[in-house]
Amino acid sequence: MNTLTIDQIKAQYPDEWVLVGNPSLSGATVLGGIVIDHSKDKREIAYRQPNWRAQFQSAITVFTGDKPKNRKFWL
Q1: Number of domains in the chain
Q2: In sequence order, what are the residues at sequence separation of 6 or more whose Cβ sits closer than 8 angstroms to the Cβ of residue 64?
């Protein structure tokens, strides 16, 4: 598993939810990490990867597309 920057993750998985393991952060900004899983549907990731803690200390879910102005995201 390779560590990717957030720009590489956005390029490889456009407009998707990405579960990033052991993320490097600057405040609340994700700088990169290891891609564990990705999907167009955020809920799929939770169902497919319930045991991510066995390999990673922490993880964060990132949306790689533009967020619609009229949609609220509950994280």
Answers
A1: 1
A2: 9, 10, 13, 14, 15, 16, 17, 18
